[in-house]
Design a protein that fits this description.
The complex is a heterodimer of chains A (406) and B (519).
Chain A lengths: L4 H6 L14 H7 L4 E5 L2 E6 L3 H10 L1 E5 L4 E6 L3 H8 L12 E7 L5 E11 L2 E6 L4 H7 L6 E4 L4 E7 L3 H7 L13 E6 L2 E6 L8 E7 L3 H11 L5 E3 L2 H11 L42 H10 L4 E8 L9 E4 L3 E12 L4 E9 L10 E8 L4 E11 L7 H4 L7
Parallel strand pairs in A: 3-13
Antiparallel strand pairs in A: 1-2, 3-9, 4-7, 4-8, 5-6, 6-7, 9-12, 10-11, 11-12, 14-17, 14-19, 15-16, 15-18, 16-17, 18-19
Chain B lengths: L1 E2 L2 E4 L3 H12 L4 E4 L12 E4 L2 E3 L11 H6 L3 H6 L5 E3 L7 E4 L5 E3 L3 H25 L11 H16 L2 H10 L4 H8 L3 H12 L12 H8 L2 E2 L2 E2 L9 H14 L3 E3 L4 E7 L2 E7 L4 E3 L2 E4 L3 H8 L7 H8 L8 E7 L16 E4 L3 H12 L8 E5 L14 E8 L9 H19 L7 E7 L1 H8 L35 E3 L13 H11 L5
Parallel strand pairs in B: 1-14, 2-3, 2-15, 3-11, 6-17, 15-21
Antiparallel strand pairs in B: 4-5, 6-7, 7-8, 9-10, 12-13, 13-14, 16-19, 16-20, 17-18, 18-19
Helix pairs in contact in B: 1-10, 1-16, 4-5, 4-9, 5-6, 7-8, 8-9, 8-13
The chains are: A alpha+beta (406), B alpha/beta (519).
Chain lengths: 406, 519
C-alpha cells in the first residue's frame, strides 16, 4: 500500500540532514572557527576546530577534547557474552577482567579482518565493543547458539576522548575523584548529572588520556563539566586531522585507511589477515576456537601470507602519504598508507603495507616515491626508507600511574 | 568413558550404510539412534488398530546398486518387477506408463506415445550425464582432483558423443522449468501433469518455477533393476529393506544402540573428540559421522563456539521446509480407481491432471496455505505386503502436496480441512472409497518432523534446488562430507547427492573417510 504523500514526505525528513549531528555538536559548532566538517559513519565530525597544527600540540602539551560519539558501539551482554565474544574476536576474552579494556580485532571464517576495535568489559557479563565499521548482522549471526543479547548503542551513547599530559588534571578538577588510581586500559564508573559516566584510561594518541562515555542526553552537561575544569589546563577541542597525526606517531592503524575491511573490500586481493596488517600479536593460538582460526593457522603454516604492515622512517621532511614503496629503486614493494612529519619524533614517519618477502625477509634498499607539488609542478623525489619498529613515539606519561599532575 | 574408532549418529539407511562400510574396514563402530528402532524413513508405524504403514517411503526408485549389493539386496533389486506409473485422469481413462518410466504407454495415442518416448530418451540421456556426478564426492573448489577432472571430461565426452546439438540442448534445458519442457514435447495433459508432478514432488517449486526440471532429472538418475527411472516394491514391503540394512550393519560388527539420543558433539579447536548422550555419558571417537539433518548437527549438537559465524549463518539459512503430507488410509476392502485394471493398482498412481493442476496446487504454498485441490502419488502397500492390513482389508498410502510446513492458520485448525480436500480428490478418482475408510492418518510436514526427526519434515534434509546441490549441499564449507571440524563428517540426505532411498550419501561419506582425507 502506498502511504499518502504527506506521510511519505514526513518519513523522509532525514534527507534534510544528511549528516547526523552528534550530541556534542552544539558545543563543537560554537567553537569551530574553520567550519571544516567531514562525514564519520554518517555523522558530522570536524576535520579541525581552529588550527590543526595547534590542535596537535594540544594533544602533546596540554589537553585535547575529541568527540568520539560517531564511533560504532555495541552492547553485548548475557550469560554467554564472554564465550560469544571469545569466538568472535582474536584475543582471549577470558583474560579480560571486569573493569578492563582491551584492543582486539575480528575476522570472518576465512581469517580476513572485519575490523579492529576496543572491547570494554563493563561488568562480568556486560561488554561494549567499539569499532569503525558497522557489524550488527555479523554480530547477530555470531550470537546464534549463545545466550546473549546484542544491541547497537552508537546513537544512544555519547563519547569523548580527553587526551594529553594535563588530561588527568582536568578530570581531577572536574571532580572525578578516583581517576588517579586508573591504570592504562582500566575503567571505572562515576556519577554524573543524575546519571553515570564510564571513564576508561584509553585513547588513540599514545599519550596520557581517557575516554568518557555517557548517555546522549547527558552529553552536553559532561562537556560543560570538563570544559569548565579545563580552563586552566589548556583544554581545547580538536578535530580528526590533529588526532590522526598523533595516532600515526603512536603507530595505531585505522580500518579502511591502513587496510580495507573484509566486508568493505570489493576486490578479492584487498582482503587482509591479521598478520598482514600488523595484528598478528592479537591472535591467541592457545585460546578456544575463534572465527578465522583455522585459516590463519593454515596461512602461517603454509606461508601463504602475502602482505605485511611496517613502520617506515623516510629521509627528508616531505610526508610520503600514499607513496609507492620500491625495492632497489625499481621493483614495486608496497604502498604507504599513512605518513606525516612527526613533530615529536622529529622524523619523517610512515605506515606502509608491503608485499612479502619485502618487509619480511627483504628489508634493505627500500625507497619511496614522493610527488611533491611545488607551485603547480610535481617534483618526483625518491627517498630512502628504513623499516623501524612502531610506535614511533613512546611516552612514559602514557603508562605512569599515578598519572602526572599539573 | 568408552571409546570407539567411529560413531555414527542416526540410524537411517544412510547412517547404517556408512556404519557398515566403516565397520567392514575393521573399525570399531558405534551407531546411535534416538528412537527405539533403526531404519529412519523406512520405519513403519501402526496408524489404525491392525493397520500398518511400511515406512515414510512407499516405493523404491533410486536404491544404489552398490548399496543394494552391500545389504544383500542385489538379487532382489535385479529381479524386481518394475511397477507401472498410472497418470489418473479426471474425465477419461488413465495413461499407464510401463517399464522404466514409460518405455511403453497404454491409453494414449500412438503419436503421443512417440512424443513421450522422445522426451523420455532426451531426459534419460541428460540425467545420465548428471548421474556420474551423483556417484562421487563433489569437487572442492580450490582442490580439484584428477578424479574430478576425469569426471568432468567424461561428462563432456558423453555430451558431445551424440553431437554438438545434443550438448547445446543439455545446456539449454538444464535450468529450465518442467512445464516448458513438457509443453515442448507433449500434448496429453495427463502425461504433462505427471512429469510436472514428478519434477516437483518433495520440492518447494511449481512446474512453472525456474529450474523445476532439476527435480525430474534427479528422479531419473535413480534406477531399479538396472533400468533408469524404474520403480519397484520389495517383496514383503519396505520393512524388509529396513531389516536388511540393520542386519548387514550388525553382521559387519556395528554396535547399535537405539533409544539413545546424542545431545552434544564434542569439539575443541577444530577437532571432534566424541559425543555426549542425553544421560550425560561421554563416548569418545576420532571420527563422528552425523547421518542426521545438517541443521540439527550444527545448530543443536555442536557448540556454536566451535564453529565460524559465517558457517553457522550458512547452515541456518539452509531451506528445509517440507511441502509433502503423508496420508494413510485403513480400508475395509482394496480401493478401485476408475478405469484401472486390478493389476495396475499395484503401481504408482499419480493425480496430477495437468500442468495447471500442479501449478495451481503449488500457488497457495507460496503464501502459507495448503492446496484446495492437491496433487498426490498413491500406492496400495497391502497388495505387496498383505501383513499390513487384516484379511480382506487394505491400506492406501499417499504423498500429497502441497502442504507447507507452516501454514498461516496453523495446522491444528487446517489439518481437518486439508484432510477433507485430500479425501474429496480421492473420492473423485475412486468413487466409493470414502465409505470403505476405517481409519485415516494424515501427517503434515510438522508431524513428519516429530515422528522422523527430520527438521521441517523435509525428506531431502534440505530443499533439492540448484543453490543447495552438489558443491553447495548442504553448504559449501561442508560439501563433500567433511566439515570445518576435523573428524566430523556428514552422511545424511542433506549431503550430496540428496534424499530418497539411495544410500549414496552414506556410501560416499564412508568412502571419503576411508580414503584417509581427514578434512
Amino acid at each position: 500500500m502506498t502511504p499518502d504523500p504527506a506521510t511519505r514526505i514526513a518519513g523522509q525528513m532525514h534527507i534534510a540532514t544528511p549528516r547526523l549531528e552528534t550530541p556534542f555538536h552544539p558545543r563543537l559548532a560554537a567553537l569551530s572557527r574553520t567550519n571544516d566538517w567531514y562525514s564519520w559513519a554518517g555523522c558530522k565530525a570536524p576535520h579541525s576546530i581552529f588550527d590543526t597544527e595547534l590542535e596537535y600540540f594540544c594533544i602533546r602539551s596540554q589537553a585535547a577534547l575529541f568527540d568520539i560519539s560517531p564511533m560504532v558501539k555495541y552492547r553485548i551482554s548475557g550469560p554467554d557474552a564472554e564465550r560469544c565474544l571469545n569466538r568472535l574476536t582474536l584475543r582471549d576474552v577470558r583474560k579480560l577482567a571486569a573493569g578492563r579494556v582491551h584492543y582486539t580485532a575480528w575476522c570472518d571464517d576465512h581469517g580476513h579482518v572485519l575490523d579492529d576495535g576496543t572491547l570494554f568489559r563493563l561488568d562480568y557479563e556486560d561488554f561494549r565493543l567499539c569499532c569503525q565499521e558497522r557489524h550488527l548482522p555479523w554480530l547477530l549471526d555470531s550470537a546464534i547458539g549463545f545466550s546473549v543479547s546484542i544491541e547497537e548503542e552508537t546513537e544512544a551513547v555519547a563519547g569523548l576522548a580527553l587526551q594529553g599530559p594535563t588530561s588527568f588534571s582536568v578530570l581531577e578538577a572536574a571532580g572525578f575523584a578516583g581517576v588517579k588510581a586508573l591504570k592504562p586500559f582500566q575503567l571505572a564508573h562515576f556519577a554524573h548529572d543524575g546519571s553515570e559516566v564510564t571513564v576508561s584510561r584509553t585513547g588513540f594518541t599514545g599519550d596520557l588520556g581517557y575516554e568518557l562515555f555517557t548517555s546522549a542526553d547527558k552529553a552536553l552537561s559532561l562537556w560543560d563539566r570538563l570544559w569548565a575544569a579545563g580552563e586552566f589546563f589548556g583544554l581545547k577541542a580538536i578535530g580528526y586531522d590533529a588526532l590522526n597525526r598523533a595516532r600515526i606517531e603512536a603507530g595505531f592503524i585505522v580500518a579502511t585507511a591502513d587496510f580495507v575491511t573484509a566486508e568493505g573490500a570489493l576486490r578479492a586481493d584487498r582482503l587482509r589477515m591479521p598478520d598482514e596488517v600488523g595484528l598478528d600479536w592479537l591472535v591467541d593460538t592457545e585460546k578456544p576456537f575463534f572465527n578465522g582460526r583455522d585459516a590463519i593457522l593454515r596461512a602461517r603454516k603454509e606461508k601463504t601470507l602475502k602482505h605485511i604492515l611496517v613502520g617506515l622512517e623516510i629521509e627528508g621532511n616531505i610526508p610520503a602519504e600514499h607513496a609507492i614503496v620500491y625495492h632497489r629503486g625499481k621493483r614495486e614493494a608496497g604502498l604507504v598508507t599513512a605518513a606525516i612529519w612527526s613533530p615529536l619524533a622529529k622524523r619523517n614517519i610512515a605506515i606502509a603495507s608491503l608485499e612479502r618477502p619485502f618487509g619480511e625477509r627483504v628489508t634493505d634498499d627500500l625507497q619511496v616515491e614522493i610527488y611533491a607539488m611545488r607551485e603547480l609542478q610535481y617534483s618526483r623525489l625518491m627517498k630512502r626508507a628504513k623499516i623501524v619498529p612502531r610506535p614511533f613515539v613512546r611516552l612514559d606519561r602514557r603508562t605512569a600511574t599515578p598519572p602526572g599532575s599539573f | 568413558m568408552t571409546s570407539f574408532d567411529a560413531i555414527v549418529i542416526g540410524g537411517g539407511h544412510n547412517g547404517l550404510t556408512a556404519a557398515t562400510l566403516l565397520a567392514k574396514s575393521g573399525r570399531k563402530v558405534l551407531l546411535l539412534e534416538a528412537v527405539d528402532a533403526v531404519g529412519g524413513a523406512l520405519r513403519g508405524y501402526e496408524f489404525h488398530p491392525g493397520f500398518r504403514a511400511g515406512g515414510l517411503v512407499h516405493m523404491l526408485n533410486r536404491l544404489n546398486p552398490e548399496v543394494a549389493k552391500l545389504i544383500g539386496f542385489g538379487g532382489a533389486l535385479a529381479g524386481a518387477a518394475m511397477l507401472p506409473t498410472v497418470a489418473l485422469s479426471a474425465i477419461g481413462a488413465p495413461a499407464v506408463l510401463r517399464g522404466a518410466y514409460g518405455e511403453r504407454i497404454d491409453g494414449v495415442t500412438a503419436a503421443e506415445a512417440a512424443c513421450f518416448s522422445e522426451l523420455r530418451e532426451k531426459l534419460l540421456f541428460q540425467a545420465g550425464i548428471l548421474k556420474r556426478f551423483l556417484k562421487r564426492r563433489p569437487p572442492r573448489i580450490g582442490g580439484i582432483t584428477a578424479g574430478d577432472m576425469a569426471t568432468f571430461a567424461s561428462a563432456g565426452m558423453g555430451l558431445i558423443r551424440n553431437g554438438r546439438e545434443e550438448a547445446r540442448d543439455f545446456l539449454r534445458m538444464l535450468l529450465m522449468n518442467v512445464a516448458d519442457v513438457a509443453d515442448e514435447y507433449l500434448t496429453d495433459d495427463r502425461l504433462k501433469g505427471l512429469v510436472a508432478f514428478d519434477a516437483t514432488l518433495g520440492i518447494h517449486l511449481g512446474p512453472r518455477s525456474p529450474t523445476s526440471l532439476l527435480g525430474l532429472y534427479y528422479r531419473l538418475t535413480g534406477e531399479a533393476g538396472g533400468a533408469a527411472g524404474a520403480q519397484f516394491m520389495p517383496g514383503g514391503g519396505m520393512g524388509v529393506l529396513a531389516a536388511a540394512f540393520e542386519k548387514t550393519a550388525v553382521s559387519a560388527g556395528v554396535t547399535i544402540r537405539t533409544g539413545t539420543t546424542v545431545t552434544r558433539i564434542l569439539a575443541d579447536r577444530g577437532m571432534t573428540t566424541g559425543v555426549v548422550l542425553a544421560d550425560g555419558e561421554e563416548i569418545s571417537a576420532p571420527i563422528v559421522v552425523s547421518a542426521i539433518h545438517p541443521q540439527t548437527t550444527f545448530l543443536n549438537l555442536v557448540d556454536a563456539a566451535e564453529l565460524g559465524t559465517g558457517f553457522l549463518r550458512a547452515v541456518k539459512n539452509i531451506r528445509s521446509k517440507g511441502n509433502v503430507a503423508r496420508l494413510d488410509l485403513a480400508l475395509d476392502r482394496p480401493p478401485e480407481f476408475k478405469g484401472l485394471s486390478s493389476a495396475d493398482h499395484r503401481g504408482r498412481l499419480v493425480i496430477g491432471r495437468s500442468i495447471d493442476h500442479v501449478e495451481n496446487a503449488f500457488n497457495p504454498a507460496k503464501y502459507g496455505e495448503f492446496s484446495e485441490d492437491p496433487v498426490m502419488e498413491i500406492t496400495i502397500p497391502s497388495l505387496a505386503d498383505p501383513s499390513l492390513a487384516p484379511n480382506g482389508a487394505a491400506t492406501l498410502s499417499a504423498l500429497v502436496q502441497f502442504a507447507p510446513y507452516q501454514i498461516r492458520e496453523g495446522w491444528k485448525a487446517g489439518k481437518p480441512r486439508f484432510q477433507r480436500n485430500v479425501l474429496d480428490v480421492l473420492e473423485r478418482h475412486a468413487p466409493g472409497i470414502g465409505k470403505s475408510i476405517l481409519g485415516v492418518s494424515l501427517m503434515t510436514p510438522q508431524d513428519i518432523e516429530t515422528r522422523y526427526h527430520m527438521p521441517g519434515g523435509h525428506w531431502h534434509h534440505g530443499e533439492l534446488q540448484a543453490d543447495q546441490l552438489f558443491i553447495s549441499r548442504p553448504v559449501n564449507d561442508a560439501a563433500g562430507y567433511s566439515t570445518p571440524l576435523t573428524g566430523l563428517y556428514l552422511a545424511s540426505a542433506g549431503s550430496h547427492p540428496g534424499g530418497g532411498i539411495s544410500g549414496l550419501p552414506g556410501l560416499l561419506a564412508a568412502r571419503h573417510i576411508l580414503s584417509g582425507d581427514r578434512r
